[in-house]
Amino acid sequence: MRVGIRLACPAAPLPIIPSSSRNPPAALLRNRSRHSVSNAMSPPSTTTSPSPDQQSGETSSSETQPPDPDPDNTDASPSNPTPAVPSSSEPAPETPPRLHLDPNGLYVIISTSGSSKLDWTLYLHRPPSTGGGLLFAIADVLGLWCYTPRTTGASIPYAAEPVAAVKVATVEPLLHAPLWETVGKVPLENTERFGGLDGRAWVLRVLEELDDKGFIQIVPGKTVREIQAEVVFHAETAFLVGRARVQGSQYCVV
């Protein structure tokens, strides 16, 4: 029976959050607003690199010589050189994100990793100015499960691997560090409720823990089992239509 370990993993990077936010009042966990609207994160801008001539500064308009006339063109003459075609200075169009995610949104993300098995992770979407998104995941390392959280910058919305993202909560910035610490304390072990340890079982157990601690709010009368079925449905739909899918959970207050 495989169990999880933590000592075999590199130290998890801490999100860039002011230290004063690591111990929020308990009332904020219970009474925080889940319907605040934030400005959407803009994708990274694309800049156009200067041409080699512009970088070197060695060529000026006064030194540019007219091109030699075409020997086969009888109409060409030194007084009527063939005009040069100017190069375009228009910047390349920006690549749109594959996933349009809400700032401070907590998502269950289903991804492909080049195999038939789907990867389950939790992802907290944050702007790059705060250190980027927070990805919570476990990985099978030489037969042992290892907790592998990391910051992602702005890469997740543009990555090719995610096929479905289901939003389960909106988490205020003040609670990002406590969320990071809470997820890191969830045991890596087999359970009777969710079966053998893998990414799916771990994410479901984390969701239950976050519901107990007030970070997310599962609709009364529903459980993480309904969320599991919902996530699988959206992943299958994304495969059928050939396009990544983003959806708010109908079993959580988002």
What would you say this structure looks like, in words?
By secondary structure, the protein is an alpha+beta fold. It has a domain at 4-11 and 101-248. The chain contains five helices and nine strands, in the order βααβββββββαααβ. The protein has helices spanning 26-31, 52-56, 176-184, 199-213, 224-241, and strands at residues 4-5, 105-112, 118-124, 134-136, 138-141, 144-147, 150-151, 162-170, 245-248. Strands 7-4-3-2-8-9 form a six-stranded mixed sheet. The chain has a three-stranded mixed sheet with strand order 1-6-5, with no helix packed on it. α4 (199-213) packs across α5. The longest helix has 18 residues, at 224-241.
Summarize the structure.
By secondary structure, the chain is of the alpha+beta class. The chain contains five helices and nine strands, in the order E-H-H-E-E-E-E-E-E-E-H-H-H-E.
